[in-house]
Every structure is written in C-alpha cells, then in structure tokens.
Design a protein that fits this description.
Blueprint: E1 11-13, E2 20-22, E3 31-33, E4 40-43, H1 50-66, E5 72-76, E6 79-83, H2 85-94, H3 98-125, H4 134-146, H5 151-165, E7 170-173, H6 175-193, H7 196-200, E8 225-226
Antiparallel strand pairs: 1-2, 3-4, 3-8, 5-6, 5-7
Helix pairs in contact: 1-3, 1-6, 2-3, 3-4
C-alpha cells in the first residue's frame, strides 16, 4: 500500500508550466507527467520508506566510525602523527582560524549527523501512521540540512592538500578517509531512494486528523498522464 500513495490524488502544480492537477494512482516504477508540457511530476519509487531507512542506519553507523577513527597521518623524519576530523577542527581553531573551524565543524560533522538523525526519526515515525505532526517539522529540517552537508567538499579539500604535501612528508591515509568516501555514495543513494511524498501522506495534520489512506475513499478523477 505504501507504494501506491498517489491514490490520494493530491493536488500538485507542474514545476514548468504551473498547471494544477491531481496525481493518478501509480504503481512502483511508474511516473506521472504533466499533460500540458510533459514535465515529470513524480515517480513512484519501490520501497520508498524501507530502503532509505536501511541506508540511513548504514550512514549513521559510518558517521560514528568516521568520527572516532584517524582520518590522516603524516610521517616526517621518523616521527608520525595522525588526526581525526574533529581533531582537524580543533587544530584550525588553535591555529587562529575559528571561522574556518566552525564552518568545517558544521558542514562536515553537525549537518550530516543532524540530516541523518532527522531522516531516521521521520522514517521510524511514519512506519505507524498517522505519524505525529513533529515528523513534518523534522522532514522540513532534513531538506534544509541536505544543502549544508558538505562531506564531499571536505574530502576534495583533503585530497588537494595531500597532493601539495606529498613531497614534504609521507601521507598515511586513515580508515576514516575511506569511510567518509563511502558515506558520500550512501548519502546520495539515501536521498535518491527516499520519497518525501510517501512520508508526508503518513503524517497527521496539526489539527489531529491523518491523511487518507489510498483505499479509504475513491480517488478523484486523475488528470496527469502516466508513463
């Protein structure tokens, strides 16, 4: 039933031509397109809530691993040192760059953790509909935090720094560096598998009423085209 949540015939506006229309009943894998301009309105994903939940749990575990294991090590004249992501933030703060340290702390540590935490809370809450209305607040926060989670940007900066210091010292990549690389791919897969519309239709209205389930009432006449 979760895969056919478009049966509620929710009103949507075409992102290209602004035509107001109702989504038809869709099977998993089908997409609805605007009958006027052909723009894709929505694609019904299979396992729109279970698959992102599994991916979110994996990302949460990897984030915990990445922030507790060494990310980089340097070996110079027989002396070795290593640091974690948080250790790098503290080093930048001590080096007199608090603005950069706070930016890295938020975009590489706090924002990804809050992003995954919000999504986990939403996905667990909507498994027993109607979910409380605070799940909607967390869902909005998840969409905002996605724009501030920049682990891939931090990794790109680390790789540039490694190239520059490769001639001066021996670089020892830590396990956290590879874990962060895996997180980048899993976060992309998590966002791609998650269907916000499926979650919204399981969240209660603020007044206490839940949205209709697909089988509760007959869907209104659909106007959007299927493919």
């Amino acid at each position: 039933m979760a895969e056919r949540l478009a049966g509620e015939a929710a009103l949507v506006a075409c992102p290209d031509c602004d035509l107001l229309q109702r989504l038809p009943l869709l099977a998993p894998g089908d997409a609805a397109r605007c009958p006027r301009c052909g723009a894709k309105l929505w694609r019904c994903r299979a396992d729109a809530l279970d698959r992102p939940l599994a991916l979110a749990i994996a990302v949460a575990l990897l984030l915990l691993t990445a922030n507790t294991m060494p990310m980089l090590g340097l070996s110079v004249a027989g002396r070795e040192t290593s640091t974690t992501v948080l250790g790098g933030v503290l080093a930048m703060w001590a080096d007199g760059r608090p603005d950069v340290a706070l930016l890295v702390l938020f975009s590489a540590l706090l924002a990804p953790a809050l992003e995954v935490g919000c999504l986990l809370a939403v996905l667990l809450a909507v498994r027993w509909p109607p979910a409380p209305h605070w799940a909607g607040t967390l869902l909005r926060a998840y969409e905002s935090l996605r724009e501030w989670s920049m682990i891939e940007i931090m990794l790109l900066g680390v790789l540039v720094a490694l190239i520059k210091i490769a001639e001066l010292a021996t670089v020892l990549p830590g396990a956290a560096l590879f874990v962060l690389g895996a997180i980048v791919y899993l976060r992309a897969a998590m966002a791609s598998a998650f269907d916000p519309r499926a979650a919204w239709q399981r969240i209660a209205w603020r007044a206490g009423r839940s949205r209709r389930e697909p089988g509760d009432a007959a869907a209104l006449d659909p106007t959007a085209a299927r493919r």
